[in-house]
């Protein structure tokens, strides 16, 4: 079982930036596909971004393309989500997730959440207008 701990959430103004971090433990980090999801109040959890073990390829939800960047540092067992040009609709609890699966194939099919089997507790991001 993989343990995931997110950090970096907070409150930011529209147009601002935040960087989320997620530290993994319990399993070889380089064997893991890593992803970020979010859940806004009253809404279902949605996919944000995912990254393969090597750092490429990466995949993004259309709503964050060009604004968010997912990256990883395998030496630190850490995955990041750099969020720029924040919008009020980015307000949500952000969750880090991990799994072992064929990322390109999973993204082609969709329903990304079903492929991840370990989840963090989440970190809250609030973007004020």
Secondary-structure blueprint of this entry?
Elements: E1 3-7, E2 10-13, E3 18-25, E4 33-39, E5 46-51, E6 58-60, E7 68-73, E8 78-83, E9 92-99, H1 103-109, E10 118-119, E11 123-128
Parallel strand pairs: 2-11
Antiparallel strand pairs: 1-3, 3-8, 4-5, 4-9, 5-6, 7-8, 9-10, 9-11
Account of the protein in words:
This protein has 129 residues and is mainly beta. Helices cover 5% and strands 47% of the residues. The chain contains one helix and eleven strands, in the order βββββββββαββ. It has one helix at 103-109; strands at 3-7, 10-13, 18-25, 33-39, 46-51, 58-60, 68-73, 78-83, 92-99, 118-119, 123-128. Strands 2, 4, 5, 6, 9, 10 and 11 form a seven-stranded mixed sheet that branches. A four-stranded antiparallel sheet has the order 1-3-8-7, with no helix packed on it.
List keywords for this structure.
7-stranded mixed beta sheet, globular, single chain, 129 residues, 4-stranded antiparallel beta sheet
Radius of gyration equals: 14 Å
Q: Give the mean pLDDT.
A: 96
Low-pLDDT windows of residues: none
How many separate helices? 1
The global form is globular
In whole angstroms, the N-to-C terminal distance is 39 Å
Portion in helices: under 10%
Q: Give a short account of the largest sheet.
A: 7 strands, mixed
What would you call the structural class? Answer: mainly beta
